[in-house]
Amino acid sequence: QVLLVESGGGLVQPGGSLRLSCVASGSTFSTYAMGWFRQASGKEREFVATITRSGHSVSYEESVKGRFTISRDNAKNMAYLQMNSLKPEDTAVYYCAARGPFSYMSSWKNDYDYWGQGTQVTVSS
After folding, report:
1. What average pLDDT does this structure show over 98-115?
2. b vs e for 89-125, b when ≥16 Cβ sit within 10 Å of the residue's Cβ?
3. Are 58 and 70 in contact, with CB atoms under 8 Å apart?
4. What Cα–Cα distance (Å) separates residue 84 from each residue in 43, 50, 66, 98?
């Protein structure tokens, strides 16, 4: 069992930055691949980024490549999503998710076993 709690969301102007954090508890964090997803109002939950258990490999949704960076610190049981050059279309509730144990990273939401409660990100002037 893994409990995930996100933080770091908020209101930011276009072009600004935010760093989302996700703290995990309840199991061995380093055995889980992690992902970030987002859900805009009235839309399906969509993939944003994923990272392997070791943190050595990552993958991004096309629209966030070059702007967002996923990372993790296994010693602190933390996953992060650094978001730069934010656009209004990035507005959504952002969720972190854990897949595992001992699973590879995935961009498919149905592959993930545990989800956080989400944190709102609003990009507006």
Report:
1. 94
2. ebbbbbbbbbbbeebebbeebebbebbbebbebebee
3. yes
4. 23, 17, 9, 23
